[in-house]
Specification:
single chain, 145 residues, alpha+beta, Aminopeptidase, six-stranded mixed sheet, 4 helices, 6 strands, globular
Length: 145
């Protein structure tokens, strides 16, 4: 996943260690999609200890060759199904300029017949590096059984 992000850009590149730990310690809330021997996409998520009924999606990556085919949505819906009925909410943070992710999360809410609430979360001032956009929190749910 680290190499995928390094090669394709568009996502914040975290340490290789972070991807390894997330994939290992949070295997129940992460998914990869392969096309043969090639990584087509991935979703990294976890269930926050203070909100165990919530799946927080930390990062979604889809290879350029697989974009526009609904892969990101299918991966997230798979994670929701695997974590049902305990997970009743889906959360993520999205920058204002990330129209693809904004559409993705709204489409999941529509598909599941529930609401998508968007609220302020992290401002530009929270980030140590200049130029990082604010992050808004998307909260989708509740999901019914």
């Amino acid at each position: 996943m680290w190499q995928f992000v390094a090669d394709h850009g568009g996502l914040e590149l975290n340490t290789a260690y972070a991807y390894l730990v997330m994939g290992d310690d949070f295997a129940d809330t992460c998914v990869v999609a392969e096309d043969g021997d090639t990584l087509a996409g991935f979703v990294l998520g976890y269930r926050p200890p203070t909100r165990p009924d919530t799946l927080f999606v930390w990062q979604v990556g889809v290879a350029p060759s697989h974009r526009g085919q609904g892969l990101a949505r299918r991966m997230i819906l798979d994670l929701l199904e695997r974590n049902a009925p305990e997970v009743r909410y889906l959360e993520s943070t999205v920058t204002p300029s990330n129209t693809a992710s904004r559409r993705l999360f709204r489409s999941i809410a529509e598909h599941r017949g529930t609401t998508c609430d968007v609220s302020a979360y992290l401002t530009e001032d929270h980030f140590p590096e200049a130029g990082h956009e604010a992050e808004e929190k998307f909260r989708i749910g509740p999901f019914e059984d």
